[in-house]
Design goal:
heterotrimer, A alpha+beta, B mainly alpha, C mainly alpha, A: alpha+beta, Alpha-Beta Plaits, three-stranded mixed beta sheet, 6 helices, elongated, C: mainly alpha, Four Helix Bundle (Hemerythrin (Met), subunit A), 2 domains, 0% strand, globular
């Protein structure tokens, strides 16, 4: 038996939605649209977008040692690294070139997972634009370098863990060095 | 109505301000130019007012629809172009004008071109008899209502032209559905108007409004049993006539892409769209005229009352669109022929009863008649529902 | 004011000419759908002439019945008919000479009738406004019998259509 009560019920539901959209909160039947350029959602910590290179203190103290693991593991092969050669002709364990092609990068975060030197991390910045599809989307090292403070700011949880780990490792290293080598003054 | 005379005067002046403005313009012209230009100018002013009103109403109806639907779905709707998105229709218009006009290679070029042009004509012609306010009917035809029904019935032909000339099966299916739907719903719509004609004893839209005069200007036909039922039937048929959800089978996006205007782009598509929205407006306007007392109403100027009521009805249409899913074809036909048509036929004698029986008794009788007939029709229309299957091993 | 009357006269004659052109189109065009559209145009044009002659009621009924209902059905039939909608068909008829003779006979008959009938253009006839109410009274009073006969014929048509359209289950059996 259909007397049209279902239709009236449906109409009432939409009417309620219409009215409540004017004064209720988003989680309570209000409008949940985020007006993007003016407002933005608070990014969750695990949000990941285009990797950056972390450094300690000043930009010349790069954590990256140009081992090239991320370059090899990167599925779309968007990372390009060249090791720096010091004047003596020995590898300096620092990248002279570190480029990421943002046109290729698919934000998988594998580089972050494989990096043994806590150097490459996924960023939160997603508003990356370029006027040209080829050259300009290849970001050089200078554009990728970001301080550890920035890392602490955007991903406090991961960053503190990483910092603790690194400090512990350093302590251990210092201790072991102290144990094996008697203090002999500065190492030449 | 008891009101201080000066207030009455002010109301009257505001009421007729638009009419008076036109009169002054014509007087001014009369000083310089021969008589016949004044007559011509009068026609031109009314014509331009209507020609400008149609597209303007259409433009802002699209905005209103998008806003209301947005609110129903807990969104904002367009709010970027101008304050509250008020310039959005203009941006849309520019977009439509600059879009490429694609004509299918196999299409019947002339008919394909003519269809969108022709469809706007009846949509605009209907505006002639709509009483926008006191003394604001463009042409006071003594067959106004009949004219409205006749002209709006032409709309099927351009839809046919468009659907056939596109050489597209979706378009053709949409055209067929339109024809079937419009023929079916025109009958209950016309019959639902009959009681109004019986009561006002005139086909002129102006006279129909004038017969709804009463205390507080609230003596509308909808406050009678036959008026209420007639209004509901008329409104449902109006929704079907302008192909709006839940009766939007001719242009069902999910089944027919876009129905008869699948192969239209740019301004031609915009013309189809415009005709549809103007039809929605005029159908609501006529509903206001017939059942909601037209421009009658206390305190506010008459044209404000008219537009307020009309837009309220349009909002109900939008509300329907935001709520109800689409009918199936057989349900659609069944609803028109097996439910609305008998109800209109019952409505006509009930209106006659109202005419001859004192008011209290008439209310009682009509409510009883409508309740019984509604119940009976629902019973008769009840679709076969198989018994609920029992799964003995399930528990 | 004379200029306006001149304009309206030109308008009426232009409408008449257009109606004739479209009427030619109805019989001369090869595409059946175009013919149907021309017919619709002719009917609308006729309604416009009615309006010009102050027969608004007739005009509205003409559009409502012929354009709104009959033409829609005609086009519907054309679309439903297989292989007719899109093609252009040469209209051939072996009986065309006989048709021409018959037609000319009718034309002569109608012409003589038209010429012989006096058309009194009196001031009274010009002023007479046929209101809807008087039309209704005439239909329900003076002409009640023919009116009812027509409705009976229409109902007979409807029932006939249903009978024809109904599937004869008993003869063919379930297929």
């Amino acid at each position: 038996m259909i007397f049209g009560t279902g239709i009236l019920k449906g109409l009432f539901v939409t009417l309620k939605n219409f009215v409540t959209s004017y004064f209720r909160k988003p989680d309570n039947g209000g409008i949940f649209t985020v007006q993007y350029p003016e407002e933005r959602d608070k990014a969750i910590e695990a949000f990941r977008n285009f990797p950056f290179l972390a450094y300690d203190g000043t930009p010349d103290k790069v954590r990256c040692v140009a081992c090239g693991i991320c370059e090899r593991e990167c599925p779309p092969k968007c990372i390009h690294i060249v090791m720096e050669i010091d004047p003596l002709g020995k590898p300096a364990r620092r990248p002279s070139v570190f480029e990421i092609d943002h046109g290729l990068c698919m934000n998988c975060g594998m580089c972050e997972d494989v990096c043994p030197f806590d150097s490459i991390y996924m960023d939160h910045a997603f508003e990356v634009t370029a006027a040209d599809r080829g050259k300009e989307l290849v970001r050089p090292k200078e554009a990728l370098l970001k301080s550890n403070d920035y890392f602490l700011k955007i991903r406090p949880g991961t960053a503190t863990l990483v910092d603790q780990k690194r400090r512990a490792a350093e302590e251990k290293k210092k201790l072991s060095r102290a144990a094996t080598l008697p203090p002999q003054g500065p190492v030449s | 109505m008891s009101m201080p005379p000066f207030l009455r005067d002010i109301e009257f002046a505001v009421d007729l301000s638009l009419v008076n403005a036109k009169g002054w313009c014509l007087d001014l012209l009369g000083h310089f130019l021969p008589d016949w230009t004044v007559v011509l100018a009068s026609i031109v002013i009314s014509g331009v007012a209507i020609l400008a009103l149609g597209p303007l109403v259409m433009m802002y109806l699209t905005l209103l629809e998008r806003k209301v639907i947005g609110r129903i779905q807990n969104r904002y709707g367009p709010n970027r172009v101008g304050k509250w998105g008020l310039l959005q229709p203009i941006a849309d218009g520019i977009k439509m004008f600059t879009k490429e006009d694609i004509v299918p290679a196999q299409a019947d070029k002339i008919v394909h071109f003519l269809a969108p042009v022709v469809i706007v004509v009846p949509a605009l012609m209907v505006f002639l008899v709509v009483p926008f306010g006191e003394r604001m009917t463009a042409v006071n035809l003594n067959i106004g209502l009949l004219y409205f029904i006749a002209v709006s019935s032409i709309t099927t032909i351009p839809i046919f032209m468009g659907s056939w000339a596109s050489r597209n099966k979706y378009s053709l299916l949409g055209g067929m559905r339109t024809a079937a739907q419009m023929i079916s719903y025109e009958i209950p719509m016309t019959l639902s108007v009959v009681p109004v004609i019986m009561m006002s004893q005139s086909l002129s839209t102006n006279t129909i409004v004038m017969t709804q005069v009463g205390d507080l200007d609230l003596h509308w036909f909808i406050f009678t049993p036959w008026g209420l039922v007639g209004f509901l039937i008329y409104f449902l048929c109006a929704v079907a006539e302008c192909n709006r959800p839940p009766f939007d089978l001719p242009e069902a996006e999910s089944e027919l892409v876009a129905g008869f205007h699948t192969e239209y782009s740019g301004m031609k598509f915009a013309l189809f769209y415009m005709a549809e929205y103007m039809n929605a407006f005029t159908l609501c306007g006529i509903a206001t005229t017939l059942f909601l007392g037209g421009w009658q109403g206390p305190f506010f100027p008459s044209w404000l009352w008219f537009f307020g009521k009309t837009f309220a009805l349009i909002c109900v249409m939008i509300w329907f669109r935001g709520t109800l899913p689409r009918f199936r074809v057989d349900q659609l036909m069944g609803f028109a022929w097996k439910f609305l048509l008998p109800l209109t036929l019952i409505n006509i004698p009930v209106a006659a009863l109202w005419f001859f029986v004192p008011e209290r008794l008439a209310w009682l009788y009509s409510i009883a008649i409508f309740a019984v007939s509604f119940w009976g029709l629902v019973k008769l229309n009840c679709a076969f529902v198989p018994e609920k299957r029992i799964y003995p091993l399930a528990d | 004011m004379e200029i306006l009357e001149l304009f309206s006269k030109i308008g009426i004659y232009a409408t008449m000419a257009l109606v004739l052109v479209f009427a030619l189109g109805v019989v001369a065009l090869r595409n059946l759908f175009h013919c149907a559209l021309c017919l619709a145009a002719v009917l609308i044009g006729t309604a416009m002439i009615y309006v010009a002659l102050h027969a608004e009621f007739l005009a509205a009924v003409q559009i409502l019945v012929y354009v709104g209902a009959v033409m829609t059905l005609v086009i519907f039939v054309i679309m439903l008919t297989e292989h007719l909608g899109g093609k252009t068909i040469r209209q051939t008829n072996r009986q065309s000479p006989a048709a021409i003779i018959g037609l000319s006979g009718i034309v002569v008959l109608l012409g003589t009738l038209l010429m012989k009938t006096p058309w009194p253009v009196t001031a009274k006839a010009l002023d007479a406004k046929v209101s809807v109410m008087s039309l209704g009274k005439a239909l329900m009073g003076t002409y009640a019998f023919p009116f009812e006969v027509i409705s009976v014929i229409l109902i007979a048509c409807l029932i006939g259509a249903i009978v024809i359209a109904k599937k004869d289950v008993s003869e063919k059996g379930p297929s």
